[in-house]
Amino acid sequence: MMLNCEKTTRLVSEGLDRELSLGERFGLQFHILICSACRNLMRQMSLLRRATSLYASADIDHLSMSDEGSTGTSGGDK
Amino acid sequence: MTEPSPLAISGQALLQDNGYLNEIRPSMLKFATQQLGDTHQAEDAVQEAFIGALKNAETFANKAGLKTWVFAILKYKIADSLRFRQKQNDHLVKNDGEDHESNFDKLFNQSGRWYPQSRPSKWGDPESAFQDGQFWVVFDACLNHLPEKQSRIFAMREFIGFSVAEICKEMELSTTNVNVILHRARMGLRLCLENSWFGKAES
Question: What residues have CB less than 8 Å from B9, skipping those under 6 apart?
């Protein structure tokens, strides 16, 4: 059964909370392969988690001051 | 020679300098309008933020600090307006868990595919966003913008690190419920960030 976009977004979200079954992962990967919007969304969902943990680690005060002197970190793009 | 000279621009001077005001006003207005969805209220919030900032402006010796400060005040003004609005809505809407459903459904058509205008676009450069103080102000505002139940459960999951099972127990909700709420919270946060930060970066 093909996943539609809405169900895909649900699975992506649940994938952040539990281990998905093999079938679910397969369905997800297949949908992502053919749908760029959901591909973007999937990537953004993990970015959200990273942003949230950065935010929670409360290093924001330090971050907020680096507003002007842009630190040109060109890290590995992975 | 490296000592701060008496000519160093104080925050107060910066705020009274029309050039600087004009520099940051548009982005503040845009931000406030996006959050509030109302130009008049946005104008008011920006105005109040400037007035609030002027009171403490002397403590800021550089633009970056001042800008962060002005945006922080703006954020509180916005949160205030939203809270007030929410209170008014609570009288009209009994169940705050469901009131966003209709809004949410608008992302997808009947067959569960994205409407063209709601398709997630590619985000510019998230890594550099994380380095930008203003991004975190937006992020904070987007979090505050979530319906209360969503933001609470999202916080339990992401900030405290509870498992879904633990949240179910704590909040007396079913797994399905918690999954739905987390999904909505993430989708809401994603959409808010896209609209307020990433959307305009690239198409």
Answer: B61
The beta-carbon neighbor of B136 closest among A45, A60, A69 is: A60
pLDDT at A22 over 90: yes
- Cα gap A1→A7, rounded to integer Å: 11
Chain A residues whose beta carbon lies within 8 Å of the beta carbon of residue B159: 52, 56
Q: What single DSSP character describes residue B98?
A: T
Cβ neighbours, 10 Å, residue A37: 19
- Kindly list the residues from chain B whose CB atom is less than 8 angstroms away from the CB atom of residue A6: 107-108, 112-113
Contacts of B134 in chain A (CB under 8 A): 64, 67
Q: Tell me, what's the ipTM?
A: 0.77
Work out the minimum CA distance from A46 to partner chain B, whole angstroms: 10
C-alpha distances out from residue A43 to A13, A25, B27, B29, B191, Å: 11, 15, 27, 29, 14
**A54 and B CB contact within 8 Å:** yes
Best residue of A12, A36, A64, A68 to probe chain B, by most B CBs closer than 10 Å: A64
The pair of structure tokens assigned to A52 is 């949230």
Taking the C-alpha atoms of residue B46 and residue B90, their distance in angstroms, rounded to an integer, is 26
The CA distance from A14 to A21, in Å, is 11
Mean of pLDDT over chain B: 77
Is the predicted pLDDT of residue B63 greater than 60, yes or no? yes
C-alpha to C-alpha distance for B140 and B134, rounded to whole angstroms:
10
Measured N-to-C along each axis, helices B175-193 and B148-155 cross at an angle, to the nearest 10 degrees, of 100
